[in-house]
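Narrative of activities, Objective 1.

The group set out to show that a structural description can be obtained from nothing but a protein's sequence at a throughput compatible with the screening campaign. Below is one input-output pair from the validation batch, recorded exactly as produced.
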Amino acid sequence: MLRAGVQDTAIDIESTLTSISDNQAPDCSDWRAVDTALRKIALRRAALDAEEAHWLRQAEALQIWRPLGMVSALDYLERVLGYAPRTAQDRLRVARALGDLPRLTAALASGQLPFSAIRELDPASRPRAPRPPGSRPPPARTSGRSKTSSRITTPAMTPMTHPTRKPARTSSASSCPPRPSR
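Output recorded for this entry:
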């Protein structure tokens, strides 16, 4: 059954490539035709992204990677769909989020928002509990370094000096009078 699905997909790809090379090639000498073709591709890509998100949710629910001998959904996305690890994580995260956000799914499917915009909106699109009036916002996240670590100087930040020589004085160019010695 799996082999038949792969063969059907291969036939679909071949027929698509043949039809593009035979009769659907736009006039490449007119910039308007090229622009129109690229915009149509972007709309199809957006619809495919929304459809892929739907099928990724189904794949995760059915754990389709197990009968195929893979260890996780990420492994499946990397091996079968050819995504890089970070891209696979993003695709799964967005697919999960779109399951609860039908308006964003519709915006993606219609081409109103590209996948990259949906990917960036995902954490911010979750509803948050309102803060009581007069309360302060939570403190900003820090990088985990202590305040003193930013004051520590490294050899790259200090001037180079020779361990046995005194630094040369550059007071000849200074407009200030020399200090009296004590």
